[in-house]
Amino acid sequence: MHIDQFLLALVAIFVAAKLFGEIAERLGQPAVLGEIIGGILIGVSGLKLVDPKDVTIHLLSELGVILLLFLIGLETDLSKLLAVGGPAAAVAVVGVTLPFAGGYLFGNWLGLETMVSVFMGAALTATSVGITARVLSDLGHLQDRESQVVLGAAVVDDIIGIILLSLLGSLAGGAELSVMGVSRIVLIAFGFVIVAILVGSKLAPALIRAIERINMAKGLFFAAVVFAFVLAYLADVVGSAVIIGAFAAGLVLARTEKAKEIEHQVHDVATFFIPIFFVVTGAAIDIRTLNPFNPDTRQFLLIGLALTAIGVVGKIAAGYAAWGPGLKRLIIGVGMVPRGEVGLIFAQIGLASGLLSAGLFSAVTVMVILTTIATLPMLRMLLDKKTPDAHPEYSDYVMDAPDDD
Q: Which residue from 31, 14, 26, 10 is spatially nearest to 395, judged by alpha carbons?
């Protein structure tokens, strides 16, 4: 790609991200939906200004994913996760198991290859904690017991989703689907996070103190980003996924006294790169594969609708796995419905590896979009509008940046 083409692609990406992201937010939807739609308009289905298969564009997209998972790690409070305890863990496990099984069995019923069915099931598993938190906060119910269970469960199944993502990424790269192979990948993923937290928790505070003594301009920001990149690199070296390393870096720094300041400083840069991933994801969607009037493509639209139904039913059913007096389990289940960034990353890996066709990739993306859109009206029907909560710690890039202290 020549420099003029690259610059034109970047201009198209950022204009589409900002314009359609703003429109989506004004319509009460997450910015990510607008960015995907903007990507569709400038990608293979529209103006063809962005080639999602271009190496440079792909690398920028990957950088956006790394920063996104780093932010998610920074916003993950393990103490709050432990506080909601068993009910959240039960909801998370059931909320992963049921949609995964449903997607996998549906793929088998369609006659798809085993790995394709596995990818379809995996894309249904993760709940977007940022989108859920934004909706609950806007409705003024973020501090409700049901909301705490939802947020705790969403964090757990995001962690499970990231581990699963690492596993499937390795399998897509040619690893054998065997008990030993799967166990090795899972142990590496869990082991890396555990070691990174234990070792990083000792090193990170010392690193931050050293940066403060040096009094370097933007030193905390650069140290945090370099730390994230180093752990992402090490994760890749040991055979895990770069997003595991980035997520672990966020978890480590979230435990330091400068966590909020780091989150605030990284947020502005992340909002520059993260939309690239979502716009490029939209740019890869070929809406011609979803044409309901074409008998050859109608099936992919129907697959997307079926996956949406499986995902919604599976997550709502998971809400009833929670226990405790007075808990409104339907609210918990509905709060677990929206998919988001992790589901899109699953789809991108499947597309890049050749396991998902353009039609199946579009079908999975339809599922992500519909489950996200459906959550807001369902929660509005179940919850009374109260004064919005001020709770920035759960904000991810689709939310506003944390306020300065």
A: 31
309's CB contacts (< 8 A; 6+ apart) are: none
Distance between CA atoms of residues 219 and 213, nearest Å:
10
Residue entry with tokens 């590896």: 353
Over residues 291-333, the pLDDT tens digits come to 888 887 888 889 999 999 999 999 999 999 988 777 889 999 9
Give CA–CA dist 359/369, Å, rounded. Answer: 15
Phi first, then psi: give them for residue 41, nearest 5 degrees.
-70, -30
Nearest Cα neighbor of 394 from 263, 225, 204 is 263
Q: Could you tell me which of 246, 363, 235, 361 has the C-alpha nearest to residue 299? A: 363
pLDDT of amino acid 315: 93
Distance CA 387, CA 244 (A): 36
User: Domain map of the chain by residue range?
Assistant: 3-394
Longest CA–CA span in the chain (Å) reads 67
Q: What is the pLDDT of residues 229-247, one digit of tens each?
A: 998 898 888 766 787 788 8
Cβ neighbors of 323 (< 8 A, separation 6 or more) are: 86, 87, 90
Burial of residue 70 (CB within 10 Å: 0-12, 13-18, 19+) is buried
| Cβ(197)–Cβ(251) below 8 Å | yes
Q: How many angstroms separate the CA atoms of 328 and 366, rounded?
A: 29
pTM of the model: 0.70
> SS3 sequence, the chain?
CCHHHHHHHHHHHHHHHHHHHHHHHHCCCCHHHHHHHHHHHHCCCCCCCCCCCCHHHHHHHHHHHHHHHHHHHHCCCHHHHHHHHHHHHHHHHHHHHHHHHHHHHHHHHCCCCHHHHHHHHHCCCCCCHHHHHHHHHHCCCCCCHHHHHHHHHHHHHHHHHHHHHHHHHHHHCCCCCCHHHHHHHHHHHHHHHHHHHHHHHHHHHHHHHHHHHHCCCCHHHHHHHHHHHHHHHHHHHCCCCHHHHHHHHHHHHHCCCCHHHHHHHHHHHHHHHHHHHHHHHHHCCCHHHHCCCCCCCHHHHHHHHHHHHHHHHHHHHHHCCCCCCCCCHHHHHHHCCCCCHHHHHHHHHHHHHCCCCHHHHHHHHHHHHHHHHHHHHHHHHHCCCCCCCCCHHHCCCCCCCCCCC
CATH fold for domain 3-394: Na+/H+ antiporter like fold (1.20.1530)
